[in-house]
Amino acid sequence: MRPLPPRPESGAPPGSAPVPLRAAWRRTLAGTLVLLAVALLLGLAIGQPAWTLAAAALALLAWHGGRLHRVLADIDAHRVGPPQRGGKGVWNALAGLLRRDRAEMRARKRRLIDLLRAYRAAADALPDAVVVVDRNTQRILWFNRASTALLGLSRPRDRGAPVVERLQPLPLARWLAAGRNAEPMHDARSPVDERVRLDLRLVPYSEDYWLLVARDVSKLLHLEQMRQDFVANVSHELRTPLTVVHGYLDMLDPEDMPEWQPMLEEMRRQSQRMTRLVEDLLTLSRLEARDSLPEETVAMAPMLAALRREAEAYSQGRHEIEVQDLAGCDLAGSGQELHSAFSNLVTNAVRYTPTGGRITIRFAREPGGGAVLSVQDTGQGIPEAHLPRLTERFYRVSGSRSRESGGTGLGLSIVKHVLGLHQARLEVDSTVGQGSTFSCHFGPERVRARHDGEADPPAVRQASH
Ligand code: ADP
């Protein structure tokens, strides 16, 4: 940014300091009095003092009128006349003040223009595309240099052009309509080059203007793709040797060699854990690689019955398990993936709830027309500090307990991904020592009428111990 010139003390040009006002008034009054006194003396001398006084007053009036006319004409023409030689009266003082104000205004304008230029130069030098959009007309007001490379905008052609039309095929119309609530678009293809991937953000920085910021994230996304491929390939490669190890372990009968029994059992447990880990990693990779899932109507009554069966089998009678089907509707989505997500929540509830606890699986409608499936337990609960990171891969509140109970540390990650593909969200509510509730919230667009014709939400339909 260019440094701004130092601000002068006063904008008035040197040598044109305004005449001090009080002295100017004194001089003007003195001049007037002298003129009138001379006129009076002259009048007395010729015996017509009233006439000479009237003539002098008229002359004064005409002179002041002339000066007023000149000053007004100068202001009107945005010009201030040079100071009159020897003139030190009020008119010169007025002209001096006008000159000073004008010079100050010019200096201020220059400073503002310099500041504006400096900001523009900074915005122009940004590596991200920045486009200023008029919020009401949705037309482009200004854009920086990077907008040419990333968005294909060019000057002067696109100044004042409608932004949605100009940035086609980017899907901006609905996005702009959301205004302040517009979620960033993390992966949009550049209108200039399909291979360039953009992260688009809308910043409504004032009532009238929006800032559209586009960042080139091609490299980042490429790295992310490499990471996903790496994890998927490693998991895939591990599958075969694990199957072989598993097979040989199964062939070994501990009864043939009792002294090896504890070791064999441990080896089996660990190889099963590794298999689960590989399967979960593969599931995650599969989910990450997709933008959407095949859609079907997922019948929720059989889904809830299956979840109950699984919970009971996993719990082995150690917990009280209740299923409440209050929604009376089904969901649209992938039955297989939704089952895997719900099942993860149910097995977690069983694993992290001590014997004698209660687990409630509840499917209900929500006020906005959506539906929620929640799994509530009376288990150990989760300290609040851990809640924001719970869905990260391999994040565990208590590592040893998770591993002992057969956890891979990937369950909630899978849940989050499955819900994301259904535009649903996971909410976790937990109190240490009292229990946790994991709720999957589905929007109204995911709700389907139930096929068996049950329109009204039935009361608690299944409860078992
Ligand atoms: P894990 O396989 O370790 O259970 P998850 O991703 O399913 O992995 O869960 C992450 C962590 O969240 C767990 O390690 C556990 O600490 C915590 N957690 C998940 N569900 C519950 C629950 N119902 N009650 C208490 N803690 C839970």
Task: Provide structural commentary.
By secondary structure, the chain is α+β, with helices and mostly antiparallel strands. It has 4 domains: 21-121, no CATH class; 126-216, Beta-Lactamase, CATH 3.30.450; 220-288, Helix Hairpins, CATH 1.10.287; 296-464, Heat Shock Protein 90. It is 47% helix and 17% strand. The protein contains 12 helices and 14 strands. The chain has helices at residues 21-46, 49-76, 90-125, 146-151, 163-166, 173-178, 218-251, 261-288, 300-315, 335-351, 399-404, 411-421, and strands spanning 129-134, 140-143, 185-189, 197-203, 209-216, 296-298, 320-325, 329-333, 358-365, 371-377, 425-431, 435-442, 447-449, 462-464. The strands form 3 sheets. The protein has a 6-stranded mixed β-sheet, with helices on one face. Helix 1 runs antiparallel to helix 2 (49-76). Residues 1-15 and 453-465 have low confidence and may be disordered. Adenosine-5'-diphosphate binds next to helix 10 and helix 12.
